[in-house]
Amino acid sequence: MNAAAIDPPRTPAITQLGKYRIESMLGAGAMGIVYRAFDPHIERHVALKTVRQELFESGERESLKARLRNEAQAAGRLVHSNIVGVYDYGETADTAYIAMELVSGQGLKQRLDSGRPLEVATALDWFAQLLAALGYAHAHGVVHRDIKPANLLVNAQARLKVADFGVAHVESSTLTLAGAMIGTPSYMSPEQFTGEPVDGRSDLFSAAIVLYQMLTGCRPFAGASQAEVMRQVMHDTPRRPSACNPALPPALDDVLMRALSRSPEARFQTANGLRRALDDATDGTPLTTTTTAEDDRTILEAQAVTLASGTGSWRGDSLPSLTMWPAAMLAPVETQLAAQIGPVARLLVRRAAARIPDAPDLSALVALLAPHVPSDKGRAQFIAAFADGSRAGMSRAGTSRGSSPASSLGEDEVRAAALRLAVYLGPIAAIVAKREAPRAASLRALHERLAAAISNESDRARFERDVGL
């Protein structure tokens, strides 16, 4: 059970637990109940995870309490922006509980239940955050052992957080016995099925299954029974991701198939190793997330990821030379596309333009790019921006470079600024622009605030040039 309010709050049967004032019930699982509670000592809301009282008579009370203590011990030693924080562990006469961070958002499972793949940029950004959390946990001697979408939360600022360390293995812990099969079958590694000792490479196998599902909309191992899932994990090679989703670049296939190797030695040995391989497969754009000291106010970037082609790759600013294409013609196409799919738009626009050898043809360019927009609605919006075959999308894409600052900000100006920012941050740019607009006295001030949200120095400089700073 995670800390997100995945079900409508319900009236709790109790009103107080230790020092915590119970406000509502967030959900219930096989092990216990999660409440929304208030800590009066430091005046903050928490998620309170408890052991179910009706299980006490089954003889499992001490085992369940030990598991709860294990979660508190595992997560409590991990202070990381991508891991749900644990604040406290306590026991009353008939209840054991842990107080943890209350995450306002949605479980990744809910986003994947539709069976539709996520946008590539979004999936890779969230996966980068998952790798950051796992790399940190592994460095501190903690193996999660139950990485799955239900244990991954995405908050309102698009930050992914890893929850539920209830079956985690902590170095020097005596809670978990060798030979015990622990995990969730569809996301378990081969060594978990056989009860062998596990390390961080098992978490990375499970994480690769999650990435596969985010990119394709389906799981690589999906039998009708636990026995069938186990047979597939132990003996079958899953379909290459691009066979399930033809929009995916082949370079990602190689990374995921290695990450799903049955032998731990054949997989990536560390989270950082897997991250570097994804960097290479996406033309070297780092898959990292941005945090600041004011963590609760941070808006995460939809990171700049670029797709590899089968005929070559470009890194950094090494993009196709498009001397015959006026920059003023490509810029609005890039910003409109970036609003739908994120920073990868910059490379895709230039690659598509390079395929039109005779003369600049905006309608042909839009036709080549439209299939890269995964949603029907987003694709229609992108095509409609240039539906008349002219450069109509340019007026909607933003103000011209070097325009004078406005004394007051209108919706069109904020929208235009967000579209320009989307080239570097992706769809999250709209949230950033909306947040910063009330704090900016002029259009120039807004552009300056948006530039500060771009962590990459070269991208920030390019944005500043684009808006005339």
Q: Beta fraction of the residues?
A: 5-15%
* CA-based shape: globular
Please give the number of β-strands.
11
Mean pLDDT: 74
**Helical percent range?**
40-55%
Number of helices: 18
List SSEs in N-to-C order: EEEEHEEEHHEEEEHHHHHHHHHHHHHHH
Summary keywords:
alpha+beta, globular, 3 domains, Transferase(Phosphotransferase), domain 1, Phosphorylase Kinase, domain 1, six-stranded antiparallel beta sheet, 18 helices, three-stranded antiparallel beta sheet
Structural features, described:
The structure is a single chain. By secondary structure, this protein is α+β, with helices and mostly antiparallel strands. Helix content is 40%, strand content 11%. The chain is built from 18 helices and eleven strands. It has helices at 61-76, 108-112, 120-139, 190-193, 200-216, 226-235, 241-244, 250-259, 271-281, 327-341, 345-354, 362-369, 376-384, 392-397, 411-425, 429-436, 443-452, 457-467, and strands spanning 16-17, 20-28, 33-39, 44-50, 86-91, 96-100, 105-107, 142-143, 152-155, 160-162, 169-170. The strands form three sheets. It has a six-stranded antiparallel beta sheet with strand order 1-2-3-4-6-5, with helices on one face. Helix 10 (327-341) packs across helix 15 and helix 17 packs antiparallel against helix 18. The longest helix is centred in the first third of the chain and has 20 residues, at 120-139. The protein is globular, with a radius of gyration of 24 Å. The two termini are 48 Å apart.
Helices and strands, with pairings:
Layout: E1 16-17, E2 20-28, E3 33-39, E4 44-50, H1 61-76, E5 86-91, E6 96-100, E7 105-107, H2 108-112, H3 120-139, E8 142-143, E9 152-155, E10 160-162, E11 169-170, H4 190-193, H5 200-216, H6 226-235, H7 241-244, H8 250-259, H9 271-281, H10 327-341, H11 345-354, H12 362-369, H13 376-384, H14 392-397, H15 411-425, H16 429-436, H17 443-452, H18 457-467
Helix pairs in contact: 3-5, 3-9, 8-9, 10-11, 10-15, 15-16, 15-17, 15-18, 17-18
Protein name: non-specific serine/threonine protein kinase
InterPro entries: DUF8082, Kinase-like_dom_sf, Prot_kinase_dom, Protein_kinase_ATP_BS, Ser/Thr_kinase_AS
Binding site for ATP: 49
